[in-house]
Amino acid sequence: MPIRVVMAEDDFLIREGVKELLASHEDVDVVATCSDLDSLVEAVEREKPDVVLTDIRMPPTKTDEGVRAAERFRSTAPDTAVLVLSQYDEPEYALALLEGGAQGRGYLLKQRVADLDQLVGAIREVARGGSVIDPKIVEGLVAARSRAGSPLEQLTARESEVLGEMAQGKSNAAIAAGLVLTERAIERHINSIFSKLGLTAEPDVHRRVKAVLMFLAG
């Protein structure tokens, strides 16, 4: 079964361009496109999609409609994941998106659209309940905290690398594969990270991601 997607973007060329790109993947089916918040809400109620792919700023106010829609869908469409596309690399938007939990939520910069495999991969990840945060957002959070003299300075280079992977919502297995380490080694690094940062270990990877991001932004 293909992943059913409702897409919201007020720029016609971007909206149609991304729709055409996604049409080339058999496991993604764009069932509706919208240009504003109201039509997005209606489309989700009508189509009950697996994933909403939405711009962060749309009519009527062109401020944070994508984030507000994601928050609304937690109660009105809890089985629908939300992947926000934005040209803004400000961590506050990502943190607002994850305020109610990171499960089934993602935040990517629009520049990633050029890499179709990365976009489709993010859609697949949130559809199965995972979370995706753009690496540039993570880098910004880490850099800001490091400049402020945070406990992040206690982390080894490998632990910092693992933290960045964690903050993107990757599972221990995915981190191990990406860094060519064993899962047991990743578990040891993660336990050390939480100990050094003063965070309680949390078995739910999604809440853990949110905790890490909120700590980094704090």
Task: Explain the overall architecture.
The chain folds into 2 domains: 3-133, Rossmann fold (3-Layer(aba) Sandwich), CATH 3.40.50.2300; 137-217, Response regulator (Rossmann fold, 3-Layer(aba) Sandwich), CATH 3.40.50. 52% of the residues lie in helices and 15% in strands. It has 10 helices and 6 strands; from the N terminus they run βαβαβαβαβαβααααα. It has helices spanning 12-22, 37-47, 65-76, 91-97, 116-127, 135-147, 157-167, 172-179, 183-197, 205-217; strands at 3-8, 28-34, 51-55, 81-86, 105-109, 131-133. A 6-stranded parallel sheet has the order 2-1-3-4-5-6, with helices on both faces. It is globular and about 50 Å long.
Produce a short descriptive summary.
With 218 residues, the protein is an alpha/beta fold.
Top keywords for this entry?
alpha/beta, 10 helices, single chain, Rossmann fold, 218 residues
Number of helices: 10
Mean pLDDT: 85
* Domain tally: 2
CATH homologous superfamily annotation of the largest domain: Response regulator
Side-by-side strand order of the widest sheet? 2-1-3-4-5-6
Q: What is the second-level CATH architecture of the largest domain? A: 3-Layer(aba) Sandwich
Categorize the overall geometry: globular
Low-confidence stretches: none
User: Strand tally, please?
Assistant: 6
What structural category do the secondary elements indicate? alpha/beta
How large a portion of the residues is in β-strands, by DSSP E? 5-15%
CATH class of the largest domain: Alpha Beta
How would you spell out the order of helices and strands?
EHEHEHEHEHEHHHHH
- In whole angstroms, the N-to-C terminal distance is 41 Å
**Largest sheet data:** 6 strands, parallel
How large, in whole angstroms, is the Cα Rg?
Answer: 17 Å
CATH-derived topology of the largest domain? Rossmann fold
Provide the helix percentage: 40-55%
